[in-house]
Amino acid sequence: MKKQLLLILVFIFTVSSIAVAQNVMPQAETVFKQAYAQANNEHKNIILIFHASWCGWCKKMEASLNDPSCKKMFDDNYVITTLDVMEQPTKANLENPGALEVLKKYKGEKAGLPFWVILDAKGNLLADSQIRPAGAPMDTPGESIGCPASENEVAYFAKVIKASSKLNDEQLAVISKRFALNKPAPVAAQH
Fold this sequence. Notes:
Blueprint: H1 2-22, H2 28-42, E1 45-51, H3 56-65, H4 71-77, E2 78-84, H5 99-105, E3 115-119, E4 125-128, E5 130-131, E6 143-144, H6 151-163, H7 169-180
Parallel strand pairs: 1-2
Antiparallel strand pairs: 1-3, 3-4, 5-6
Helix pairs in contact: 6-7
């Protein structure tokens, strides 16, 4: 009886260990190394998006970037990569180890999700999702736009994309139109 119980416990432990091992996310450093190598080989910049499985705006950002109307434009100009952060305790296995430290490095830990940065192939910060006063340095806290949706957010995103890519005004208009679809519908006034 004890042997059977021991065998059952060993089996359960082995199966659960395999299941946990299959959900191990790559280290943030590994994700970066792959993105830098690809960006360097393809002469592109990097869009790094911090997101979480529970984040509805993160899903909208991903859907917008992958929309057939603009996916090729992004793929031709950027290496797009993600780091998972701030998961609920039951989904902590989805987080990339070291990602929260990277988010803090870019001063995005209080900005909400998605938080994104644009880097060159060497890892230099070119832009992020924070709108700052004109002329303010990058280390000045700003208002994070997350997934661009409002007219002001989409205009800022288009400005950042234009400065960090080879996209022309016509292509930027297509991207802007797609991201504008993320704008929440107005709520009807109640009487």
